[in-house]
Amino acid sequence: MSREYLTLDELVLRLGRDRRIVEKQVQRGIIPGRRIAGEWRFNETELTHWLEQDLRELDEQQLAQLESSQNSEELEKHAGLEAVLPPETCQVPLDAGTKPSVLQELVEVAGRTWQVWDPTAILRATREREDIMSTAFETGVAIPHPRNPLPEALGQSVVAFGRTLSGIHFGGPRRSTTDMFFLVLARDSRTHLQILARLGRLLHQPDFVEQLRNTPDSTSARALILKADAELATFRTP
């Protein structure tokens, strides 16, 4: 949408949650919002930042509800990852041994699509997001991304996947190391959240992380991601 603020009704639709639950979270200050002329209003950028942090606490069903509610104009309804993860954006192994080099390499991998128009701006924005809070999970997976969508820097939204030969310190919980990375570059907040929720669902699938870690090359890694992604359709909420 073109407006900067969402109404309460729009927020409920965006989150895909029960209205009573959303209202309680708003009243308790869990969901960031403010009253304007006696009505609740929610800044879309603030909401996206809050949702990014909240994603870690959502289970598979809640992630599916969030994904379904985004209705990205760029992605087809209920679309999976195939449209944003072409063969050239998977790199196994990823030739990087530090956090800065991982981000640099991932942006270069994403650039193979010719959809990355301003790699310098994207790399800078991704680094700034990581400086605020690491996107690494304790499972050894990280999902780096710019804090805000950069439509002027992208032709189309794209995801790049890479796996390093060994784990590196990427800011994960309990000083855990990270060896698998999904770089998410989206042109708008709906597409951004839809992709993040989809990836979050994948990470909830039994054995997916370890199977992905054991794939021998880029082709097999992408094939496994898309296979697991296609199987998610069975569990999607309408």
Describe the structure.
- It is a single chain.
- With 238 residues, this protein is an alpha/beta fold.
- The chain folds into two domains: 5-57, Multidrug-efflux Transporter Regulator, Chain: A, Domain 2, CATH 1.10.1660; 87-235, Mannitol-specific EII, Chain A.
- The protein is built from nine helices and seven strands; from the N terminus they run βααββααβααβββααα.
- The chain has helices spanning 8-15, 19-27, 44-54, 60-70, 99-110, 119-132, 189-204, 208-213, 218-231, and strands spanning 5-6, 34-36, 39-43, 90-91, 141-142, 158-169, 177-185.
- The strands form two sheets. It has a four-stranded mixed sheet. Strands 1-3-2 form a three-stranded antiparallel sheet.
- A hairpin with a 7-residue loop joins β6 and β7.
- The two termini are 22 Å apart.
Shape: globular
The pLDDT mean sits at 89
For the largest sheet, list the strands in their spatial order.
4-6-7-5
Instruction: State the distance separating the first and last CA atoms.
Output: 22 Å
SSE arrangement, N to C: EHHEEHHEHHEEEHHH
Radius of gyration: 18 Å
Number of domains: 2
CATH class of the largest domain: Alpha Beta
Got a strand count? 7
Ranges where pLDDT stays below 50 over 5 or more residues in a row are: none
What fraction, in percent, of the residue positions are helical? 40-55%
Main pleated sheet? 4 strands, mixed
CATH homologous superfamily label of the largest domain: Mannitol-specific EII, Chain A
